[in-house]
Amino acid sequence: MAAPLRHRGPDGERFWTEGRVGLAHTRLSIIDLEGGAQPIENESGSVRVVFNGEIFNFVELRAELERRGHRFRTRTDTEVLVHLYEDEGLGFLDALNGQFAIALWDATRERLVLARDRPGIIPLFHARRDGRLYFASEVKAILPLIGPPTLDAAALDQILTFWAPVSPRTPFEGVEELPPGHLLVAERGEVTIRRWWDWTFPAEGGPYAEGSAEDLARELWDLLEDATRIRLRADVPVGAYLSGGLDSSALAALVRSDAGDRLRTFSIGFEDAGLDERPYQRAMAEHLGADHSEIVCGHHEIAEAFPETVRATECPVLRTAPTPMGLLSGLAHREGFKVVLTGEGADEVLGGYDLFKEAKVRWFWSKSPGSAWRPNLLQRLYPYLELSSMRAQSYVRDFFGAGLDRPDDPFFAHLPRWTTTAQAKRFLAPDFARAGGTSALEAMRDLVPEAAAGWHRFCRAQYLEAKSLMSGYLLSSQGDRQLMRSSVEGRFPYLDHRVIELANRLDPRLKMRVLDEKHLLKRAARGHVPDRVLSRHKQPYRAPDAAAFFEPGRPVPGYVEELLSEEALRRTGYFEPRSATLLVAKARRGAVQSVRDNQALVGILSTQLWHHIFIDRFRSDFAPQS
Amino acid sequence: MTVSSESIRSKLRAHILESFLFTDDDDALADGDSFLEKGIVDSTGIMEVILFIEEEFGFTVADDEMIPDNLDSVDALVAFVSRKRAT
Predict the structure, then answer these.
(1) Which partner for A115 in A102, A227, A552, A602 could form a disulfide, CB atoms 3.0-4.6 Å apart?
(2) Residue ranges of chain A assigned to CATH 3.60.20.10
(3) Residue closest to A124 by CA, chosen among A99, A107, A145
(4) Is B55 on the interface with A (CB under 8 A)?
(5) At the top level of CATH, which class does the domain A3-195 belong to?
């Protein structure tokens, strides 16, 4: 039953069933290595829980629960869940500082509770068939119970717009994810799903968090220190990923101040010099006195590992960037690490992305759309933009000027990106495109709460980023799935809900001061991180895309040839074979250079792989063994 | 809310020093220094200064106001911002 999840928990496996309910668990033992087998129950056995993840404040919660008279049988963080639930009912989640997917059975009420952490770090999926509710950390554990899957056409339409389906949709028709910060209760045949936490911001103009920039920077650093400190709680060693940028460098500095021992760090390097950050990673590792390891990814490694990436993501992807992350977790695993801290989340929480910066420039421009001068500020972000020719000006007006007349549209910041991505839809087979509909933007609009209309535009952009790319792609396809495929748990101090809640209360001008991204974090990190890291222009993490598979002078991997053949494209029916093979021919010539073409090529290949892994091989890999 | 010209000056100076000269040495910038002549701010940098004053002081700068007389030194900026805020 739990075998498809063994990579998430190779240290132990238990199954418990009683009457109408069954709970299965595969364990990655991190806290209380001897005594932590799950399910874990309360004193009377009336409440049982299995969970994936960590409750970082379990020490404090346990002390409080013991004061209230609860008796503990283990030293685990898991056990606080059953006692806390006994006392607080469904409100027990509010007290948790952690990352989790929880399944709790309350035998007295015959109630099953599924719950997912606030930002959506740990996955949780569910499906209903024939009056039964199935749930698991990954869809591959549900498939044997519900039969061969079908690719959800609307999900692919959304992936080809936002890089990920809009929660709760998944690529598997009829399988949903429990959205981040949500709770599912199944009781007496009724299933209800509701939100228990969400990102929220003050109304535009405030009141925002009080205090000078210096005071707030100190408050932020203190909070990050505490968020990191509790994320070092483990009975196994904890390492850290180092990208070479500000976020992971600040994090490594925070870890070092707490770790005592020599810090252990892991990095990805690339053979492509334009993508490689090894000099910065090594400089930071040296600054920290860390014991540093790295992997170097060339085209071959990425092409070879890409099928395994898609098996892990369970979702078509438009970039190969998750693959090196999977290889990195392999390195951490080989070096004996089960837990790593990572800097993910800082860009969303503290305002780091170029997308936010670009939006600020476009808002600046929208104040006077006819201005001859305002669009010049785009050159601050994109120095290569040549605005002197009429042709270039016209391009800039068409591309970046989209929506200038609607600066308050909640999608203002994201539309240029989504529009570029959605160009990949031109490759969809007409029938499949029709089945997918054209409602991607409406689905995303439904995610935006009414209150967002009153927030500052910058905060609205942050909200959308957190709800689309962050939880749907970065924390899943590129995060949890790539970590867990090698049985490594990632921990994310920037996504501590106290950090998110402080950051959300900040005046947006402190997050991005004019065009200075993560301004307050930089202030906070001064003195802890070398100046050259603080002043370095942010480099987005990228991996080679089409070039990883199609490199002049090197044979194209067999599976790529096979899955992108006209015959295979015709058989799966998702893409128009003629257009797709023309794109493949362009890639063979080494002419797929643009973001648009690269995304389309990787999107088509990963969708074909998805079909091959989950549909073609269903019988051999996922069907129940008789 | 009224903002004194000294408060405007100190905000502008702090921003130029931090964002363009990358220093907190107050002596690095004289209030009469021409941004362009001294190479402190380039032509797209001026747009960034405009973004700063719009964000900080809450008004919009028209195209015909984007001229060196208004923007090319701390003194010019203080006078310009004070004038705009008075209207």
Answers:
(1) A102
(2) 3-195
(3) A99
(4) yes
(5) alpha beta
Chain B CB within 8 Å of residue A371 CB: yes
- Domain extent at residue B51: 5-86
Give the residue on B whose Cα is nearest the Cα of A381.
Answer: B44
What is the reported pLDDT for B1?
45
Which residues in chain A have their CB less than 8 angstroms from residue B15's CB?
514
Is the distance from CB of A72 to CB of A79 less than 8 angstroms? yes
Name chain A contacts of B55, Cβ cutoff 8 Å: 509, 514
**pLDDT tens column, A44-65:** 999 999 999 999 999 999 999 9
Beta strands, E only, A323-478 = 339-341
Distance CA A79, CA A160 (A): 42
Output DSSP code: residue A171: S
Which pLDDT band, with edges at 50, 70 and 90, does A385 fall under?
A: low
| pLDDT mean over A524-534 | 88
- The CATH number assigned to the domain holding B30 equals 1.10.1200.10
Identify all chain B residues contacting A377, using CB atoms and an 8 Å cutoff: 44, 47-48, 51
Which CATH architecture fits A213-312+320-350+467-534?
3-Layer(aba) Sandwich (3.40)
For the ranges A18-27, A238-247, A386-395, A523-532, the lowest mean pLDDT is seen at A386-395
CB-based contact, B51 to chain A, within 8 Å: yes
> In chain B, how many domains are there?
1
- Reply yes or no on whether the pLDDT at A264 is more than 80: yes
Interchain contact, B55 vs A516, CB within 8 Å: no
Residue B80, beta-bridge partner list: none
Across A114-123, b (16+ Cβ under 10 Å) vs e yields: bbbbbbbbbb
In chain A, CATH 3.40.50.620 covers 213-312+320-350+467-534
What would the pLDDT profile of A296-343 be if each residue is shown by its tens digit? 999 999 999 999 999 999 999 999 999 999 999 999 999 999 999 999
